[in-house]
Each structure stands twice: as structure tokens, then as C-alpha cells.
Design goal:
The protein is mostly helical and 69 residues long. It contains 1 helix and no strands.
Length: 69
């Protein structure tokens, strides 16, 4: 009687662990996809910031040039 109950409990625990393992692997895949997207966005933002800083330098140089004249 007790042995059957123990075996039943162990089987339930093993089933839960298998489901947890599947869910964790699924979450890992989702996180990897999100990290790829975030990396692409960060690269795009860095490019935009670089281009913007170049324009600011050129614009401020032109302003100072015309102001001195």
C-alpha cells in the first residue's frame, strides 16, 4: 500500500519535472530570440547616434563659422 503511494508520488514528481524541463527550454529559446532582436536594435541606435553626432558637429561648426564672419 505505502509502496504504491510512493511510486505514484515519484511518478507525479517525474512528470512535473519533465514539464518544467520542457517549459525552461522553451523560455531559453524565447530569450535567445529576444537577445538577437535587442542586439540589432542597439546596433541601429548606435548608428543613429553616431550619424547625429556628426551632424551636430557640422552644424555647430557652420554656425560658429558664420557667426565669426
Amino acid at each position: 500500500m505505502k509502496e504504491e503511494k510512493i511510486i505514484k508520488e515519484i511518478t507525479q514528481i517525474a512528470t512535473r519535472l519533465q514539464h518544467m524541463h520542457y517549459d525552461i527550454n522553451e523560455v531559453k529559446m524565447i530569450v535567445k530570440e529576444q537577445n538577437g532582436r535587442v542586439r540589432k536594435n542597439e546596433t541601429a541606435i548606435a548608428r543613429i547616434n553616431g550619424i547625429g553626432s556628426i551632424f551636430i558637429i557640422i552644424f555647430s561648426g557652420l554656425l560658429s563659422y558664420f557667426k565669426l564672419k
